[in-house]
Model the fold of this input.
Amino acid sequence: MTGERLTRRFYRRDPVTLAKALLGQILVRRLDDGQELTGRIVEVEAYLGVKDRAAHSYGGRRTKRNASMWLDGGHAYVYFVYGMHWCFNVVSDREDVPTACLIRALEPLEGIEEMKRRRGQDRETELCSGPAKLAQAFAIDRALNGADLVSSDAVNIRGGRRIDASNIAAARRVGVDYAEGWSKRRLRFFAAGNRHVSRL
DNA sequence: ATGACGATTTACT
DNA sequence: GTAAATCGTCATA
Done:
């Protein structure tokens, strides 16, 4: 599996299982000029869909913006927030089950100079240590919304070295204080001790 | 047509 | 620690 593109089967799981499984895998972004940017996934949040007050699909809310959440597992859900930031999610489970995993941080691997240029930052830990930071570093925007990670050349995920359960830490999700009880659930998973996670 | 609000980041006190 | 930046999207009218 290592080095191979992840399959549909990998993605068609519940968002918590998928979030943990995504840790350690390699996000690959091929730019229009052919350059490849890659990074190891080190932080992911799970959004549980219709029942999850913090999810964009809470209560079955379905709009033009969040339509990608209803796609089959393995598609990209890219959304715009706070008037200036893009965030990248991997859709989990099957078609019509609007759950997803928000990729929150990556450990930069290839194309680091390009990422520094796009971020306007020189410190490696400032390149992809947050959902909007990594979107900027990886040139992710609305053009990738709805992309199929199983078949797209522009964006996909390769098998890396999976992070063992004993090295996965769990914490509350970030920025969802409005979600009442759901903000307290530990649905944010990250590689324990990794320097590239958000919120040092 | 209008108003409120973000699954964030950055800079500043 | 607090707050500004900044605007597409959505709900209401």
Notes: The first strand of chain A starts at residue 26 and ends at 30. Residues 45, 47, 54-56, 79, 81-85, 87, 89, 100, 102, 104, 130-133, 173-176, 178-179, 198 of chain A lie near DNA strand B (CB under 10 Å from a C1').
